[in-house]
Write a structure and sequence with these properties.
The longest helix has 26 residues. This protein has a 6-stranded parallel β-sheet, sandwiched between helices. The two termini are 34 Å apart. β3, α4 and β4 form a beta-alpha-beta unit. The chain has 7 helices and 6 strands, in the order βααβαβαβααββα. It binds farnesyl diphosphate. Farnesyl diphosphate binds next to α1, α2, β2 and α3.
């Protein structure tokens, strides 16, 4: 694996609705094409040697969308597991989730449980799907768990560090994202991994999610690499004492 490849890439997959509207198609068709882009991105990441791919598939705010759209998205997720689980497993990819997955329909939760159990010991890559996820809720839940641990005496106040709080987040066993990509032209974080992206490189592209192909992914990785290279140069100069403060 290349040294300047991001180990963890997180993606806000935006623009499915607009992709459909531009073609006078129902929004759900945009999501259907979005699911194809998910497959492509997973395969690209695996081939590139990215260790963790986190996809924002459904936010806590997305529950407010029309019922038909919510159920359409749940159906697509379910179909994705049905059609792709075997290949994901063959490719040694581990599926995990973050978010309040229990709020999803029971049948989808059951399928996700099967997918997670089947792929639990896979080691090539982690596909982390954010479902009913909100960054603030993640931090709030962690704060509640931490305060319980303090109350019960499991943790002493002087031992509370950022790492300790991080252990109560949904992402406890994952490295922080190195690169956050948002498609669809908006320049917002939209309550995604708020705590975890503290040091991530942010990359925004106008490409709508259904159009996000290997070339678009490569562009994002290239932008990340060029930023890393620039950063590398400055730190070398600092070490060599060439930089004036
Ligand atoms: C944002 O587009 C996208 C979503 C809310 C859902 C993302 C879901 C998928 C890509 C498909 C299913 C997922 C998996 C894991 C198989 P938008 O509807 O907000 O687009 P708009 O801003 O153009 O309206």
């Amino acid at each position: 694996m290349s040294a300047d490849l991001p180990g963890h890439v997180a993606i806000i997959m935006d623009g499915n609705g607009r992709w459909a509207r531009r073609r006078m198609l129902p929004r759900l068709e945009g999501h259907r094409q979005g699911a194809k882009a998910v497959r492509r991105a997973v395969e690209f990441s695996r081939r590139a040697g990215i260790g963790v791919l986190t996809l924002y598939a459904f936010s806590t705010e997305n529950w407010q969308r029309p019922k038909s759209e919510v159920s359409g998205l749940m159906k697509l997720l379910s179909q994705f597991i049905d059609s792709d689980l075997d290949e994901i497993h063959e490719h040694n990819i581990k599926i995990r989730t973050i978010g309040e997955v229990k709020r999803l329909p029971a049948a989808v939760v059951a399928k996700l449980d099967v997918a997670k159990a089947k792929t639990a010991h896979n080691t090539a890559m982690i596909l982390n799907i954010a479902l009913s996820y909100g960054g603030r809720k993640d931090i709030l839940n962690a704060a509640v768990k931490l305060s319980r641990a303090l109350k019960s005496g499991d943790i002493e106040e002087e031992d509370v560090t950022e790492e300790v709080l991080g252990q109560f987040l949904d992402t406890r066993d994952l490295p922080d994202p190195d690169l956050l990509i948002r498609t669809g032209g908006e320049v917002r974080i939209s309550n995604f991994l708020l705590w975890q992206i503290a040091y991530a490189e942010l990359y925004f592209t106008d490409v709508l999610w259904p159009d996000f192909d290997d070339d678009a992914f490569r562009d994002a990785i290239e932008a990340f690499r060029s930023r890393q290279r620039r950063f590398g140069k400055i730190s070398e100069q600092i070490e060599e004492g060439k930089m004036t403060p």
